[in-house]
From TrEMBL:
Pfam families: Lactonase. This is 6-phosphogluconolactonase. Belongs to the cycloisomerase 2 family. It comes from the Bacteria.
């Protein structure tokens, strides 16, 4: 497990923590504010959430030792999330603060070339603080690899781009407005590829969309709250994850400091609230959720509490049970499992 930290734009964190290779240890790197990860084989890619956004490539060695193999400018500010194209030859990144989506070529040795394509979002939303400008927050290729999905917290939209696997070019294919002042943040694709789930940072909901892989067109099917009925407080959902078998979806709530557990219908088209699992004491701020590849564990970096909590997942009910002890890590914001 690799863990990145974030202490804010004005107080940078440095270093990535490795755990699970024996005793936990801080891997000293020069990556400031490591906010998002992507993994391909023995290479860890890291989004640096700073004013001059960058993406770093690090070789994973014995016992979790990381060796830099290069970095590239993201040509924007506040790089927050990364994902790899299914064929591994391209890396996508979003610049939250400057409102752009970028594409990097990946060399055979795992290093990155300079940005091959940049798409600048425009527009705003009704929230005068969080939506003054576009803020793309999540990017991922669809199951076909022919299109790329992007959520934008600032414009309330889900974008679908056609992707040219030869040049890395993105061209807008479709755009769906998910609400007004809702702030789309994270996105999960159901294993069947026919449904998408998008959480909203400003409205504390999950928007369920049908997705036609052939046409690349999303369609809103339903919207469900990430909070229990009757709860009214400041809340800003962060991470979103689905179990590999597609039966349960997990959403992190910052403010309510919980993990919302949803049962997913057999066809993937609807969600049923199952439980709201507390992550610890008040003001822990769970920043992400990551499900293990075998679906047996869920990991939660709690930014303010300075812990990474591990929960066992009941295979039948989807319910969570805290596994002690939690791992102490300064301001954890993201987790990568390798």
């Amino acid at each position: 497990m690799f863990i990145g930290g974030y202490a804010g734009a004005d107080r940078l964190t440095h270093g990535i923590t490795a755990a699970g290779f024996g005793a936990s240890a801080s891997v000293q790197t020069d990556v400031p504010n490591p906010f998002g990860f992507a993994v391909s084989g023995n290479v860890l890619y890291v989004a640096s959430n700073v004013a001059d956004g960058r993406v770093h490539a690090l070789r994973i060695g014995a016992e979790g030792v990381l060796t830099p193999i290069g970095d590239q400018s993201a040509r924007g500010a506040g790089t927050v999330q990364l994902s790899l194209h299914p064929l591994g030859a391209w890396l996508f990144a979003v610049n939250h603060d400057s409102g752009s989506v970028v594409v990097f070529p990946v060399a055979p040795d795992g290093s990155l070339g300079e940005v091959a394509n940049l798409v600048q979002h425009t527009g705003s939303g009704p929230d005068p603080v969080a939506q003054q400008s576009p803020h793309p927050h999540f990017v991922v290729a669809d199951p076909s690899g022919e299109r790329v999905l992007v959520t934008d917290k600032g414009t309330d939209c889900l974008y679908v781009y056609d992707f040219d696997g030869e040049t890395g070019a993105l061209s807008e294919h479709a755009r769906v407005r998910l609400g007004s002042g809702v702030g789309p943040r994270s996105l999960v694709v159901h294993p069947n590829g026919r449904h998408l789930y998008v959480n909203t940072e400003l409205a504390s909901t999950i928007v369920v969309c049908g997705y036609d892989i052939a046409t690349g067109q999303p369609k809103i099917l339903d919207t469900v709250s990430t909070l229990p009925a009757g709860v009214e407080l400041w809340n800003a959902p962060s991470g979103l994850a689905i179990r590999p078998d597609g039966r349960f979806l997990y959403a992190a709530n910052r403010g309510h400091d919980s993990i919302a557990v949803f049962a997913v219908s057999e066809d993937g088209g609807s969600l049923r609230p199952v439980h709201s699992q507390p992550v610890g004491a008040a003001a822990t701020l769970p920043w992400d959720v990551v499900v293990a590849a075998d679906g047996s564990r869920l990991y939660v970096p709690n930014l303010v509490a300075g812990t990474v909590a591990t929960f066992g997942i009941d295979q039948d009910s989807g319910l969570l049970e805290l596994v002690e002890p939690t791992l102490a890590v300064p301001t954890p914001a993201c987790v990568a499992l390798v």
